[in-house]
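Table S2 (continued). Query chain:
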Amino acid sequence: MSYELVIVEPAEFDVDYLYRYISERSPQGAGAWYRAFEKCLARIVDQPFSCSLAPENPRFTFELRQAIFKTRYGDPYRCIFTVVDNEVRVLRVRGRGQPPLEAKDIVELEPH
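Corresponding output:
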C-alpha cells in the first residue's frame, strides 16, 4: 500500500534551512542531499512501518517513526514522521548534533 505524503510546515522549514546551509558550503552537496531526502520520502511512503520508532517516541501519545538518510560523506539525517490513516506525515527533518525532539517541536496532528 502506498500512502499519501504530507509534509507539515515545520518540516518544510527544516528542509529549506538544511538545504540552504549545505548550499552555502557546497551547491553540489546540497543537490545530492536533496536527492537523498527525496529517496527517503519515496521509501517511507511505500513502506513506513519498515522504519524504526524514533528515540523520542516514548515522549509522545502517537507513534513517532524515523527514516535515516545520509549524504555521500556519510553525515546522517533523520526524517521524523507519523502515520495517520492513509497519510505519512513528515513532522521534522533533523541533522547530526541537533537535540532530541520535544513536544513543543511537533505541531498538533489534526485530521485532514
